[in-house]
Amino acid sequence: MANIKFLVRSVAKGKFAKLTVRLYDGVKYDLKCPSGYVIPSEAWNNRSQSVKQRYSYSSDFTEEVSRKLLNGLGDLKHFVLQALNDHVGQPINRDWLIEVVARFHGAVSIQGKGKETLNEYIDRFIEECRDGRRLTNRHLRFGASTIKNVKGFQVQFREFQQNRRKQYDFDDITLGFYEDFVAFFNAKQYSPNTTGRMIKHLKIIMRAAREEGLHANAEIERRQFRVMTERVDNIYLSENELRTLFNLDLSDH
């Protein structure tokens, strides 16, 4: 009989870790993939399949967050087992499990409306950065400034689409798109560093979506699809110059 467990393999204290979903059935299969949920690595008990009783909650992981996590894991377990019961003809392998977990999180509509679009994915990407379900490569929560920058990219991307009167999806992100996107920012007289930051966030989002199985578009990896930068010479005052300004008598002005 098929069973599901959620596992944390990281032992790094003070950092969030990804919960892995394990689907197994005797000798038939033993499959693992990311569950889409994260938790402080020292909080999870693999044996009891719950948060450790003596875990000290914090502002990053409160009791309310813990309850929502456990409810989400319960829903995911039910969803995967139901998909397993309903499947017809598909081989039960890791790709199948990844697809089912993605469908649970909304990457593919449960009602059969089709795959999540690029704009929908950007919404989810930002939401998961905010609530801690999505982590940095160092397994830390995204900072407020990073989330603000990604949100800024989203605003510019929406404005670009409105300007071009087109909704862009994953497969539309080509070199032709890149040149048009850069031209859009050049027309607004944005600096190369600002334009490059928008390209950087787009590439991060496209790579994340590709890893989650939403598309197979690799155009962003081409050399021409580059993140441009320019050197900035920061102008600053010496200590003596600051002292002179501080002591300047402006009482007559």
Could you explain the architecture of this structure?
This protein is of the alpha+beta class and 253 residues long. It is 44% helix and 12% strand. It has helices spanning 63-86, 94-104, 118-131, 144-164, 175-187, 192-211, 239-246; strands at residues 3-7, 16-25, 29-40, 44-45, 50-51. It has a 3-stranded antiparallel β-sheet. Strands 4-5 form a two-stranded antiparallel sheet. A hairpin with a 4-residue loop joins β4 (44-45) and β5. α3 (118-131) packs antiparallel against α4. The model is unreliable at 108-113 (pLDDT under 50).
Largest sheet: 3 strands, antiparallel
Let me know the average pLDDT: 85
Low-confidence stretches: 108-113
Count of beta strands: 5
Q: How far from one another are the termini?
A: 85 Å
Could you say which overall geometry the principal axes of the C-alpha atoms support?
Answer: flat
Walk across the major sheet and give the strand order: 1-2-3
The tally of helices reads: 7
* Computed CA radius of gyration, to the nearest angstrom: 24 Å
| Helix and strand pattern | EEEEEHHHHHHH
Percent range for helical residues?
A: 40-55%
Structural class: alpha+beta
Q: What is the domain tally?
A: 2
Q: Name the beta content range.
A: 5-15%
Task: Please render the helix and strand layout as text.
Elements: E1 3-7, E2 16-25, E3 29-40, E4 44-45, E5 50-51, H1 63-86, H2 94-104, H3 118-131, H4 144-164, H5 175-187, H6 192-211, H7 239-246
